[in-house]
Design goal:
Layout: H1 2-5, H2 10-27, H3 31-51, H4 53-63, H5 74-86, H6 98-101, H7 111-144, H8 148-172, H9 190-216, H10 220-260
Amino acid sequence: MLLIASQPDLGTALVLGFTIFALLLVAGVPLRLLGIMAGVGAALVVAFVLVEPYRAARFTAFLNPWAHADSIGFQAVQGQIALGSGGLFGVGLGESVQKIFYLPEAHTDFILAVIGEELGVAGISGLLFLYGLIGYAGLRTAKLARTRYAQLLAAGLTALILCQALLNVFAVLGLAPLTGVPLPFISSGSSSLLVLLGTMGLLLNLAARCETHLAALPDHSRRRRDAQGSRRAESSHRSRWDGRARRSGAGGRRAAGGGGR
């Protein structure tokens, strides 16, 4: 993370930091140690922000973008205008004005603002729902994994996708400073897409192994039926054995009585 942040690329370092934090949380690291790590990480982020003037300018623009609408806050302001212009259902697919004339880099890290303008709140909600499905499927895969390594791998890969998506969404909505992190599977960029597709391939492989493992195991109802059947067979065998023992005992007593007479 320090090597990536020193390139400089603080956005990718933040994505990795949040992913590692989520992975350690799933692994069961005590919350006290996680709190110490989070504090140290926040201090390092502040130090990296203050060292570079352009990072400090981005942070200032995040606090009050409209006060710097003609300079450092221009992109954030134009993104908010695009989101506000979309309303509930948007202006129509392909009808965005901001992406053509006003919003810089609309096809990369600010593609969510274009989606909000063209498809409105409904489009953004649908996109967030799809990311939620990825999160649910990934965490379910981690829960059903057979080995500890597979559990941590599935949880880490899921966190990698979700942390990147949340950081981009927060930045576009004005809830976090601009970091230049692309929106997973949506933003233009072949390197990001290749990494994310590889991540999804690993998750699908882990999920397939979980399904194979579950299919090989009998379900609970079958287990109960087998257990009940074995108990009935054992009870029937015991009753037959007891019946034979009683009949043989009665026959022995009759033979003994006849011999006495």
